[in-house]
Write a structure and sequence with these properties.
Layout: H1 4-20, H2 25-38, H3 50-54, H4 61-73, H5 77-84, H6 88-94, H7 101-110, H8 116-124, H9 136-151, E1 156-157, H10 158-175, E2 181-183, H11 185-188, E3 193-194, E4 197-201, H12 205-214, E5 220-222, E6 225-230, E7 234-240, H13 246-254, H14 257-262, H15 267-271, H16 276-282, H17 298-301, E8 316-320, H18 331-340, E9 345-351, H19 363-380, E10 384-392, H20 403-406, E11 411-415, H21 424-436, E12 442-443, H22 461-471, E13 474-478, H23 491-496, E14 501-504, H24 516-525, H25 539-553
Parallel strand pairs: 4-7, 8-9, 9-10, 10-11, 11-12, 12-13, 13-14
Antiparallel strand pairs: 1-3, 2-4, 5-6, 6-7
Helix pairs in contact: 1-2, 1-5, 1-7, 8-9, 21-22
The structure holds zinc ion (ZN) (2 copies).
One zinc ion binds near residues 319, 321, 390 and 506.
């Protein structure tokens, strides 16, 4: 039996869908009015006779019939007909707060987007800004609303939690004095997404409970643990301890159980635990940085004198978009900001010509941009802008311009943006052909995944990495916190094959450069060494890298 809420949601869905499909406005407006007024009724609709339902404003013959049908079968004919001609992803779009049928119609029919994850991707690439009826503000609201719907499913991106966690710590610091507090678990291990937070602190449990309750947070106390919903939705456990055991508890809750097993952590170790560094030393093990404590092969690749990449070691910023294609800032603004952030070079990679949705550059625009780069370089030296392009990998694996045009770029990021639904074989063939193209310098976001939203096309990572090794192609670690693609788990394999990784922000506005912070965290988690990070090269080294590659490839 359908309850009232289910009936109302079907009536509303029908109203939205029939507006989307340009049906009779009087009809769908009567459904909206009816649903609005029916909401005030507390008794189950099923217990009401026809006369009392008809007395509700807006409930005419067709609404009444619809209600009767929903109650008995769960749907009604007109709704079924509408659903039939609407892709399921478009129905999802109608559920996004702030998107009415009119806007969804434009998104679907004019921009060509028919599902939520593609819409989020498009927003991130500023593709909505120039469409009539949309603007930066609407775009930002849509992103927020989509993010909210994902977190409602119980998972959060690291990047989204970072600010909340820092604010929480700062708030504790302004309230309490002389205490330790540290986030632990998945957060300290820099997992790209997580479904709960753990934090260890020396603040007195009762005082902490009082502090939380004063903020109207409902808490549950279990021994030395306080659990509550952070920001009203994120499961959060705080473990209260004293300063003597703080380090031990932090250690025990950071590494996952496989890591603790791998390093042979036992009950007796806990008795003499002083610090993390000390513990690994006593066990004659290399120190494992928190983000790597996953119980995989971290003991094998942590050998003496390893230097994992650090954010401050990145000297250049590659793969960025300007307003030549779908970026927000001008080429000059992007360059000035990169220079002001002490980067030695910038790689501009706007979209290529077949990326019509992103105003991809035809040959004339490419040459126009190259000319502007030359002019800026003359003024900004020793800072240097490299001429790049994010060339679409077409369905058959070829790149998007003739060899003659391709040869004029300093470097090329080759990425898949279209026809993402493909079998693993097809995806492999497509990528392999692009990797074998002598003009491909970097393979961009290798799987096309969007964390928590879209899993990406399936690829045989080993085959792809092997091909990159054979062809001297660098693999991108796309640093956007929704992508982090290539996945950190494949970095070790790439390194053993001698493949370099480039931590690229894929910035669509100048502030996007800062996403390289998240890329660096993922890179460190995967154990990426500084010497294998392409954009840790200084300007001279990067130029040498490019020219050596050119002569090797004979291009
Ligand atoms: Zn891309
Ligand atoms: Zn891009």
């Amino acid at each position: 039996m359908q309850d009232n809420a289910a009936v109302l949601s079907k009536l509303n869905l029908y109203a939205k869908l029939s507006e989307l499909h340009d049906e009779n406005p009087f009809k769908y407006k009567s459904f909206i009015t009816a649903a609005f007024n029916l909401k005030k009724i507390k008794e189950p609709f099923n217990d009401l006779d026809e006369n009392s339902l008809s007395a509700v404003p807006g409930v005419g013959k067709s609404v009444l019939e619809a209600i009767r049908n929903i109650l008995s079968t769960g749907s009604f004919k007109a709704l079924d007909a509408c659903v039939e001609k609407t892709p399921i992803g478009v129905v999802d779009l109608l559920n996004i707060k702030g998107l009415g049928p009119k806007k969804v119609k434009i998104i679907w029919e004019e921009i060509g987007i028919d599902n939520v994850s593609d819409l989020l991707d498009a927003c991130r690439q500023n593709r909505l800004v120039e469409t009539k009826g949309f603007g930066l503000k609407t775009q930002a609201e849509i992103i927020k609303s989509i993010e909210f719907s994902f977190s409602a499913k119980g998972n959060w991106h690291y990047a989204r939690l970072l600010d909340l966690c820092n604010a929480f710590k700062a708030d504790l610091k302004s309230t309490f004095t002389g205490f330790q507090v540290e986030f632990s678990g998945d957060f300290r291990r820099c997992m790209p997404t997580m479904n709960h937070l753990i934090c260890v602190t020396t603040i007195d449990l009762l005082e902490l409970v009082e502090y939380l309750e004063a903020q109207e947070t409902e808490v549950e106390v279990n021994d030395d643990e306080i659990s509550f919903l952070f920001e009203g939705q994120i499961p959060f456990t705080m473990i209260c301890t004293d300063s003597l055991t703080f380090n031990r508890v932090l250690f025990e809750t950071t590494g996952n159980s496989e890591h603790l097993k791998l390093i042979g952590y036992q009950q007796e170790d806990s008795l003499s635990f002083t610090s993390e560094e000390d513990f690994y030393k006593k066990k004659e093990l290399p120190f494992i940085i928190p983000e790597q404590r996953e119980g995989l092969n971290e003991l094998e690749y942590n050998i003496i004198d390893q230097h994992f990449i650090e954010y401050g070691q990145l000297k250049g910023v590659l793969h960025n978009h300007t307003n030549y294609s779908d970026g927000l800032n001008t080429l000059k603004e992007m360059a000035d900001y990169a220079k002001s952030q002490n980067y030695q070079y910038l790689g501009v990679c706007d979209h290529s010509k077949s990326a019509g949705y992103a105003r991809g550059l035809d040959e004339d625009r490419v040459f126009q941009q190259m000319h502007e780069i030359d002019e800026l370089n003359a003024k900004m030296s020793p800072f240097k802008i490299f001429k790049g392009i994010e060339s679409d990998i077409l369905s058959d694996g070829s790149l998007d311009y003739s060899d003659d045009v391709l040869s004029k770029f300093d470097f090329i990021v080759a990425s898949v943006h279209s026809n993402l639904t493909m079998s693993e074989d097809k995806a492999n063939e497509r990528l392999l052909k692009a990797i074998e193209n002598p003009y491909t310098t970097i393979l961009g976001h290798p799987t096309g995944r969007l964390l928590l939203m879209r899993s990406g096309y399936p690829i045989d990572h080993r085959r792809i990495i092997d091909a990159c090794a054979a062809n001297g192609v660098v693999i991108e670690l796309n640093a956007h916190p929704y992508r982090l693609d290539i996945d950190w788990k494949w970095i070790q394999y790439a390194q053993t094959k001698g493949v370099k990784i480039s931590i690229n922000p894929d910035a669509h506005e100048k502030m996007g450069y800062h996403d390289m912070y998240f890329g660096t965290l993922a890179a460190r988690k995967g154990g990426l060494l500084t010497k294998n990070t392409l954009n840790s090269l200084n300007l001279q080294e990067f130029e040498d890298f490019l020219s050596k590659r050119r002569s090797l490839k004979n291009i």
